[in-house]
Amino acid sequence: MILRDAAATDAVGRTLAGSLRAGDVVTLSGPLGAGKTSIARGVLSALGLAGEAPSPSFAIVQPYAVPEVRLPVLHVDLYRLNDPAEIEELGLDDARHDHALLVEWPEHAGAGAWPDALALTISIEPNNARRLTATVPAAWKDRWPT
Predict the structure, then answer these.
(1) Into how many domains does the chain fold?
(2) 33: helix, coil or strand?
(3) Model pLDDT, residue 146
(4) Sorted alphabetically, which Pfam families does this protein's record hold (predicted)?
């Protein structure tokens, strides 16, 4: 899917929010500045967050709870993790019981993390467009917009 501008990137996040459920993991991969946080912000905005969500780069995990949003979400940025073993300390697997996870830089969690995740990869194209590719697991087959 080609995303021609920032509005299209935001729209992907907004559309995704309509299908998101507690227990879901959505991974967002791509280079710096590709639009990972923009998609997450679109999700959070569509879930009712007033104002712009901060990037969780320094906090690593930014929680959003009801009534701030309609569905509890953890926005996670693993960029600063040095070792995949650190992921366990974040308690993300326990949080999945009642939260959805939006995970930027999932490759820092190590191979095989969240095999059931909707895996979105964003690349930068000419003219500031973005290419979005999705690896869609069975749980998302009827929910992911194609």
Answers:
(1) 1
(2) coil
(3) 52
(4) TsaE (PF02367)
- What tokens were used for 47? 């879930």
Residue-wise pLDDT for 47-85, tens only, equals: 999 988 888 888 899 999 999 999 999 999 999 888 888
The CATH number of the domain holding residue 61 is 3.40.50.300
Rg (CA), the chain: 14
Reading across the β-sheet that carries 130-135, which strands appear in turn?
2-3, 130-135, 118-124, 25-29, 100-104, 73-77, 61-64
Residue 82 lies in a domain: yes
Residue 76 lies in a domain: yes
Other residues' Cβ atoms within 10 Å of the Cβ of residue 27: 23
Residues 6+ away with beta carbon under 8 Å from 106:
27, 28, 29, 78, 113, 114, 117, 119
What 8-state DSSP symbol labels residue 137? Answer: -
Domain contains 102: yes
User: The domain containing residue 72 runs over which residues?
Assistant: 2-140
